[in-house]
Amino acid sequence: MSTDTTASVSTHILDTSAGRPAEGVAVRLSARPPGRHAAWQELGGSATDADGRCKDLPALPEGTTQVRLDFEVEPYFLKKKAEAQQDAPAHRDSGAVFFPEVAITFAVTAGEHYHVPLLLNPFGYSVYRGS
Fold first, then answer.
1. Is 55 within 8 Å of 9 (Cβ atoms)?
2. CA-based angle 124:126:127, to the nearest 5?
3. To the nearest 10°, the Cα dihedral for 72, 74, 79, 80?
4. 57 near 29, Cβ under 8 Å?
5. What are the phi and psi torsion angles at 71 (to 5°)?
6. How far does the chain reach from its first CA to its final CA, in angstroms?
7. Which of these, 61, 52, 46, lies nearest to 4 by C-alpha position?
8. Per residue in 29-80, pLDDT tens?
9. What distance in Å separates the CA atoms of residue 58 and residue 52, rounded to the nearest whole number?
10. Helix, strand, or coil here: 82?
11. How many CA atoms, within 13 angstroms, populate the side-chain half-sphere of residue 60?
12. What residues contact residue 41 under an 8 Å CB cut-off, 6+ apart?
């Protein structure tokens, strides 16, 4: 049995529409202690690297029971769209992004590590507990 008093969290993003990691996506980490109505505490954030990973998310405080990862995906998709339109400017659309952000909330247990990948495309996403 682990003697750790806190859980730990990591994540990465795969853009399934491109079959590549999503680089440069801002990710914020928040934690909540026991109690459904306890206030969220924003702990800080990071951005995904060239491999789509956030390697420097802050540590969770002792007593954390719920975690929220907020992914700011709109700038990523707008940049991707702008790069694609350089070759075909006649096909511009409204520029709207269907999912401007993705928020994932999950429960944690002290001593456990939680790797939560985000599989992302312009019109959908899924998550799972990885290893």
1. no
2. 155
3. 100
4. yes
5. -105, 120
6. 18
7. 61
8. 999 988 778 899 999 999 999 999 998 999 999 999 999 999 999 999 999 8
9. 17
10. helix
11. 29
12. 30, 31, 32, 61
The amino acid present at 54, given as its one-letter code, is C
Residue 98 has which token pair? 């269907």
Q: What is the pLDDT of residues 89-109, one digit of tens each?
A: 544 455 678 999 999 999 999
- Which residues is 53 bridged to in the sheet? 12
DSSP structure string for 22-60: --S-EEEEEEE-SSTTPPPEEEEEEE--TTSEE--PPPP
Half-sphere exposure of 122 (CA within 13 A, CB side): 10
User: Residue for token digits 């999503």?
Assistant: 22
* Joined tokens for residue 60: 């969770």
Nearest-angstrom CA–CA distance, 26 and 75: 9
